[in-house]
Amino acid sequence: MIEIIINGKRIKTEKGKTIAQVAKENRISIPLLCYHSDLKIKASCRVCVVEIKGDKVFQPACSTKVSKGMEIITDSKEVKNARKTNLELLFSQHKEECSDCVWDGKCDLLKLAKEYKVGINKFKDRKSKYPVYQFGNSIQFDSSKCIDCRNCVEVCHNQGVDFLEIKERGSFFQIVPSKKKDRDCVYCGQCLTHCPAGAFEAVGEFEKIEKPLKQKDKVVVFQFAPSIRTSVGEEFGLPYGKVVTGQIVSAIKALGVDKIFDTSVGADFTTASEAEEIISRIKESKNLPILTSCCPSWVKFVEQKFPEFIPNLSTTRSPQSILGGLIKTYWAKKEGINPKKIFVVSVMPCIAKKFEITRPQLRIKEMRPVDLVLTTREFARLLVKRNIDFAKLKNQKADDAFGSPSGAGVIYGASGGVMESAFRTAYEKLTGKKLQNVDFKDVRGMKNVKEVKIKIGKETKKIAIINGLGFAKNFFEELKAGKRKGYTCIEVMACPGGCIGGGGQPMPTSEEIRKKRAESLYNIDKKIRIRKAHENPVVKEVYKEFLNKDKKLAHKVLHTSYNKKLKGTVKRV
Amino acid sequence: MDIISEIKKQKLTGRSGSGFPTALKWEMVKKAKSNKKYIICNGSEGELKNFKDKFILKKYPEIVVEGIKAALKTIDHSSAIIYLRKDYYYLFKGRLKKLIKDFPIEIVKKKGGYLGGEETVICESLEGKRPEPRIKPPFPVQSGLWGHPTLVNNVETFYCVGRIIRKEYKKTKFFAITGKNKGVFELPEEYTIKQILKETKNYPSFKFFIQSGGGAMGEILLSKELNKQVEGIGCLVVFNAEKTKPLALMKEWATFFSKENCDKCTPCREGMYRISEMINEGKIDKKTLKEILIVMEKTSLCPLGKNAYRPFQTLIKKVIL
Prior knowledge:
The complex is a heterodimer of chains A (573) and B (321).
Chain A: E1 2-6, E2 9-13, H1 19-25, E3 49-52, E4 59-60, E5 71-73, H2 77-91, H3 108-115, E6 132-135, E7 139-142, H4 151-158, E8 164-169, E9 172-177, H5 190-193, E10 200-202, E11 219-224, H6 245-254, E12 259-262, H7 263-284, E13 290-291, H8 296-305, H9 319-335, E14 342-348, H10 352-356, E15 372-375, H11 376-385, H12 407-410, H13 417-431, E16 449-456, E17 459-467, H14 469-480, E18 487-493, H15 511-527, H16 537-547, H17 551-558, E19 570-572
Parallel strand pairs in A: 1-5, 11-12, 11-14, 13-18, 14-15, 17-18
Antiparallel strand pairs in A: 1-2, 3-4, 3-5, 6-7, 6-19, 7-10, 8-9, 16-17
Helix pairs in contact in A: 7-9, 7-13
Chain B: H1 3-9, H2 22-31, E1 37-43, H3 52-59, H4 61-74, E2 78-84, H5 86-100, E3 105-109, H6 119-126, E4 150-154, H7 155-165, E5 172-178, E6 183-188, H8 193-199, E7 208-212, E8 219-222, E9 235-240, H9 246-260, H10 266-281, H11 286-299, H12 303-320
Parallel strand pairs in B: 1-2, 1-4, 2-3, 5-9
Antiparallel strand pairs in B: 5-6, 7-8, 7-9
């Protein structure tokens, strides 16, 4: 223990901590802007500066470690003025578009502008003529909003993508999309969730949110992803990880939507199909390890960076695509609706899902299974626009036709969830025995690479679960080089923690927040009586009544294909 | 001979401008526990109107190399790098190689501009990364190149060490002077600016002011303020007070800094841009300028930003007003 003094107050603390950490623990407010708990400390914004007695210049609280007897002043006039000037300089390079921003006015920049009485227009915007880039049809980067913290460059590198680069243009270094042929955006959106300035957004983010409500001559069907049930509440001031499944249904109903189904039921179908694939590939020793394919960023990454692993990808479609397909085939027929008149909207934690629905391989009879994807943020914005007071809504249940999900379908939203679900089913199918303990706890958690051995009958299967694309990149390079071997299945989710950390999720994000969202998913699973996908009565019924009767159509609804891909478009808009 | 005690006895301080006691730096690297250590001879001077390292490398390369070899002997498990700016690399590589013989000393060409000479930037750039300053601490003496204890000294510092070994050190310092008798001069380090200008025949007959300590970062001094020593690197520039346009001078500095800074931290990146803007538009708002100079000095990340305020502040205070 050492003693330091902050603003005259004696504080006992441990060596090795930063001034910012100690201040936070003692409820002393120091503004942080370029700091993000997921990333390295860069100390570049210089907004967290403090005075240290005996030091003639100020030091950043985020990177400066406390030492014995250190006397720190965080709130002198000089310190406040310096922060104010630095904030004014930051605003001078940031074009404000607060009404159309992923932060929705809740960014730290604006909060600090108020606190420090910052003249946000003191200077002409330096970057007003900087370009807006669009990556494929999924992400836009408005470089006129960028405040040069370079969090996006770091996170893009951590993702193993390295698509965002720092290049010298004139007398400034700028962040630009890579021109290199082998570098392409995978639309994971981690740049977006780690940008303090709202310089990234999904294409059409917020502009097209009312589209579902304008389909006058169509039957509008909503589905919502497993992970959003423990995250969307944050947009309405509810605590992190709050379970709001019933309120999501009520909110969608309040929008006047015709039907609402739960994508977690789609996940149960994905599990059933993927478990079949696992079993047949194990029996035939073919295309192993089998790789999960419900994460579209991961699929694109494989198609571009590791095409030799394309045969290993599970051909089973993602939950939203299967459910969308079933809505337009099985359900349409049952209800006597022309499937061309159905408009399926998915609420997803993900930007890449917007890309996924445009994949031509997913078409069934020339129809896209899903017509529009709204991110969690867009969905929340739509509710606000329609004056729906989410926090006060009562719980309702999704529509009957696709019933309720198993617990397995819900945990899809967290890293490890897909493997756990698949093995709850595959175990029983392979051994013919009932699985007593369904909790595969080793596959859970935020660890980026989890290696687990699962005993199935007399055999032990080695599986790996990876979250964070950069870790997947290293893993597969080692696999290619023969440094790793013997895996039966590998689950990969591009985003940290899985979909609960997705690029379409509410901001901010951090490991602590992601943990809470994931824990809540496991709590839901615990409380559901049916915890295995193949035991879900809806799954049984749809297989019996529909999928088993028309194998050709069933294959179309349940499976897809992949191909080696070239770099997508990067244009200026 | 215990070289560190000898250096301590001579009270040698680093000649890169920081004035850090050389013996202390050597001791820190010597004492640091590591199975690998690095010694870097920094020959990447990039200050405007400073050219004293070039002079030393041309005239006394053997003494510089002797200084480096002494460091190699003093510091266990060490190898050395002579880090040279591009033009110096091509000029002096051949001669230095002959002097190095089979000692573990490598000659490396500098990447990046002015900032490329800062000690942590050198480490970053030698590791193949972008030439940007690191957050200190840790200091290079603790964790420098590839995370190993690293001794970074200026060409002139190694020259002084070389002289100390030869028992020829006379407490001299090199001064690069831009005046009517432009050149590099080796003079006693305790000389005042006035003495230096007079002795080198650079003391003008007209009304003048000077910039002391670097052609960009140095402070502005009036003719009545010359009874002191040069702070920073030994670099003096004489300006004709009647013929020099202060705005043009500030523009030269601002252009230099804007081009040479790394754009990492806010005050230096945006502050220097706004200073340039005000100068270019010929509309200087004194209050805003003052605010910017304060944050540059007090909150910049590296020595470039922290010191770039000085010429502007002193010029405005002493010449413009």
